Amino acid sequence: MTTPFSDAKAVLEANQAFYKAFESLDIQRMEGVWLHSDEIRCVHPGWALLSGWDEVMQSWARIFENSALMQLRISDADVQVSADLAWVVCTENITSVVGSNVSQFQVQATNVFARRKGQWRIMHHHGSPIGG
Amino acid sequence: MTTPFSDAKAVLEANQAFYKAFESLDIQRMEGVWLHSDEIRCVHPGWALLSGWDEVMQSWARIFENSALMQLRISDADVQVSADLAWVVCTENITSVVGSNVSQFQVQATNVFARRKGQWRIMHHHGSPIGG
Q1: Taking the model in full, what pTM does it have?
Q2: CA of B36 to nearest chain A CA: how many angstroms apart?
Q3: What is the ipTM of this complex?
Q4: Which of A7, A132, B48, B96 is the most exposed place for a label (fewest CB within 10 A)?
Q5: pLDDT at A33 exceeding the cut of 60
Q6: Where are the domains of chain B?
Q7: Could you tell me if residue A112 is left (phi over 0), alpha (psi between -120 and 50 degrees) or otherwise beta?
């Protein structure tokens, strides 16, 4: 699959915007990076599939409410683009504060993006625990 | 995203072929359903990312060598297609025999497919444990 450099760059920026929204713990910012559609899907580490706008956004609201601080460093991001669909695999290196507990862990992620009116939006996030 | 019914059907058949190859525990059959490319990626439940043909196929060979029997029933398969790229999310309901241990568990999967010369081939499999 030949991915133009400019497309790959734009998708990686959308991937970065998703993680910045994640770190912000701001549900409105998170809503801004997703495709506004009931076609969106999300699998959080250890969770079953969530489908559609309401289910996915409620899950982020719940995660944000229960997190005092979330720091995400992304490594090994790898992107492939075909027309208006793209997918990224990357490793999330997470430092999370929930209550008084600080934890550090890694999550392996697959993210799917769709291009609408020139903008790449995330439409599927699948995160899974590494190890454990 | 508007997915023609015929495309969705062909992708779901490729998804089914992938799971039939998985059940067969036959590495040659598994090789036959993947895109022959170093662009392929694979995340087994709890594993880190595997990249490229050799790494991905060695992992399947290892899983097959260590499995006496594997039965996969797929539920909630959901497909989206854009041009020559497609992704499926589905739940794998697995009965596995390793040594004398029989276990039953569910895996949430995201599978990405590419169309080459009219044939859909899997190019990324991401499986993650549900619960636990």
Answers
A1: 0.92
A2: 12
A3: 0.88
A4: A132
A5: yes
A6: 4-129
A7: beta
